[in-house]
Design a protein that fits this description.
Blueprint: E1 4-8, H1 13-24, E2 28-33, H2 44-49, E3 54-58, H3 64-76, E4 82-85, E5 91-92, H4 100-128, E6 131-135, H5 148-168, E7 174-180, E8 192-193, H6 203-220, H7 226-238, E9 244-247, H8 249-260, H9 263-281
Parallel strand pairs: 1-2, 1-4, 2-3, 4-6, 5-8, 6-7, 7-9
Helix pairs in contact: 1-7, 3-4, 4-5, 6-9
The chain binds NADP nicotinamide-adenine-dinucleotide phosphate (NAP).
NADP nicotinamide-adenine-dinucleotide phosphate binds next to helix 1.
Length: 282
């Protein structure tokens, strides 16, 4: 029987590549995006290639009513075999300079939105003995300087998913955390940078980090997103062992180095290297 997956943040980057990867494997895809069908043009190519297996649905993680509506749509399309919590964005900048409002919004989208949607859809996934896959980040495992807001949201997501994976196991539901490294998606251009005042002691480091990120983006420009889509399909269809799965050479290398080096030393060296890189660019 044909399987179906709901993918959030399907408008670009990993979400879009996931839509294509699942459609290519004969899955039915509910592509959840802000604006819903009004932004159908984003999927012209996929809708032409897979006209009967793709449905565009509206989702704004900041809007509870939109989460409720999506639940009803998913219920109408049941069975639902997989949920991919992919939507999110990054809040970067120093913790001291970050506003309460920005931090709360970051947590609302990346953490509370993900939790609320998952809670709503769990009954459907219990029925299908399905899979919940949440896209975190390598920054959900190791925190870098000047990424505190984003890291906090992804660490929260990882704690939630780790607990959830054990809770839902008796019901036949598998839970996975995907931890990508840096890839060329809309993530870089949609970053919410906390811009410090000229008097801020973090000004130099923040400007340096912005420049460093531009350099990394330039370097990663041609990097294919296909491995991320493939990894998602692999996790959802093969249901391998293990909760956390890194993807991308930088993320995989970070995980391996962290396994070989004592945790405190790893953290100290990583912070020192990144602080130096950030300041050197300023
Ligand atoms: N690219 C990387 O280097 C990287 C590395 C590690 C982890 N990640 C994670 O990967 C996931 C996907 O990001 P991406 O890299 O593919 O970036 P992206 O191209 O910017 O995609 C992010 C998606 O999230 C959606 N989104 C943002 N806020 C939302 C909200 N309030 N409600 C519903 N949808 C919302 C965006 O929708 P709109 O089109 O409406 O803005 C977009 O579809 C994110 O969770 C990100 O944290 C990315």
């Amino acid at each position: 029987m044909q399987k179906s997956v709901l993918i959030t943040g399907a408008s670009s980057g990993f979400g879009l590549v996931a839509c294509e990867a699942f459609l290519a494997q004969n899955w039915r895809v509910l592509a959840a995006i802000r604006g819903g069908k009004e932004r159908e043009a984003l999927f012209t190519d996929l809708l032409a290639r897979f006209p009967s297996r793709m449905e565009i649905v509206e989702l704004d993680l900041l809007d509870n009513a939109s989460i409720d509506r999506l639940y009803h749509t998913a219920q109408a399309h049941a069975p639902l075999d997989a949920l991919i919590n992919n939507a999110g964005y990054g809040l970067f900048g120093s913790i001291e300079d970050t506003s309460d409002e920005s931090l709360r919004k970051q947590m609302e989208v990346n953490f509370f939105g993900t939790v609320k949607l998952t809670q709503k859809l769990l009954p459907l996934l219990r029925h299908s003995q399905g899979v919940v896959l949440t896209v975190s980040s390598i920054l959900g495992r190791h925190a870098f300087p000047l990424t505190g807001g984003y890291c906090a949201s992804k660490f929260a997501v990882e704690g939630f998913m780790e607990s959830l994976s054990a809770e839902v196991k008796p019901f036949g539901i598998k839970a996975y955390i995907l931890e990508p490294g840096a890839f060329p998606t809309g993530f870089g251009s949609s970053l919410d940078w906390t811009l410090p005042l000229p008097s801020s002691p973090y000004l130099k480091a923040t400007v340096g980090y912005q420049r460093l990120r531009l350099k990394i983006s330039e370097k990663n420009k041609g990097k294919s997103l296909t491995p991320v889509g493939k990894k998602m399909v692999h996790l959802v269809t093969n249901r391998p062992f293990g909760l956390r799965h890194a993807v991308g050479s930088d993320a995989v290398a970070t995980v391996w180095i962290a396994r070989l080096v004592p945790a405190n030393l790893f953290h100290q060296v990583l912070s020192a290297v990144i602080n130096k890189l950030q300041r050197r660019q300023a």
